[in-house]
Amino acid sequence: MSYVPYGVSYFANFLESYTQHESGNSHSLVIVFNGFANQDELAPFIKLINSYSINHELVFAKSKFDIDVYYYMATRYNMFSFLVFLNTYSVILSDNWLKYFYKNLTQKNVGCVSATGSWGDFRHKDDYWSAVNRLKKFNFRLADIKKIIYFKYNFYPSVGVHLRTNAFMISRELFLSIKRPKVRPFILSYLFGLNAKKLRSFCFEHGNNNFSKQLLDRGYLIQIVDKFGNGKNIEDWSSSNIYWNGTQENLLIKDNQTSKFEMANPSEKKLMRYAAWNIKD
Fold it and tell me: Are 29 and 56 in contact (CB under 8 A)?
């Protein structure tokens, strides 16, 4: 999927990586453009696609948000048993990437596999309690009220274990059975000018009833997959050096957040490791 307002460069990076790395598994490539106002905006994207000799199908989606598009595509393409979603920022780093996804997804009790995942977001939890303490001391700002409501109703008591949705694979039937969490309270979007659909996408990935939690509650395993094809269960995520730890040397598919870690200075990386893994070093 390519979000058109971000420009053609991200899409170019994806296409280059897609053509440079063999997937290792037969598949159909469907390219989805979203977020555009008119067809003229698509011209550079179409020109770029035509410069590659790849079999593909084009789809044009109205929604600006990833999760909306994912559900739309899952409903539309009922001829496929398995779906792989790659977002605007995705860049493939290894051959056999699709083979590795499929191999692990089809193991017993595995419900979903992703290129990255996290144990939570421990910095957001800290921010929440800092805002609560300021409120108790009557030394708060409007932003603190917003933060407390936002976190309390949608993420409390903490951002939990979750697969990230930049690059993941799941069965179509299972994906469509997942309930999309609603933003609570709905008036939040009016009080603070938040985009309810965007916040709903956040809730789907890492809210207190995120899609990973729903799968775990049903007894499924969730895994992240490294560049060697190894599926990692939750307890091994932090030591796998795939996402926001080490040098991310085992990463299979990168995105804007893994690039952020790569470019961060040592003190920033320390904070990011803590955010994802509760590692204090």
Answer: yes
pLDDT in tens, 210-248: 999 999 999 999 999 999 999 999 999 999 999 999 999
Kindly report the length of the chain.
281
Q: Has residue 165 been placed in a domain?
A: yes
Does the pTM exceed 0.85?
Answer: yes
Per DSSP, helices labelled H in 108-253 are 122-136, 142-154, 172-177, 188-192, 196-206, 211-217
Domains held by the chain: number = 1
Q: Domain range spanning residue 74? A: 2-121+159-277
State the residue for tokens 């299972």.
174
Asked whether residue 131 is assigned to any structural domain, the reply reads no
To 5 degrees, how large is the angle CA 25–CA 65–CA 166? Answer: 40
Digit-coded pLDDT (tens) for 37-57: 888 899 999 999 999 989 999
Burial letters 89-119, b for 16+ CB under 10 A, else e: bbbbbbebbbebbbbbbeeeebbbbbbbbbb
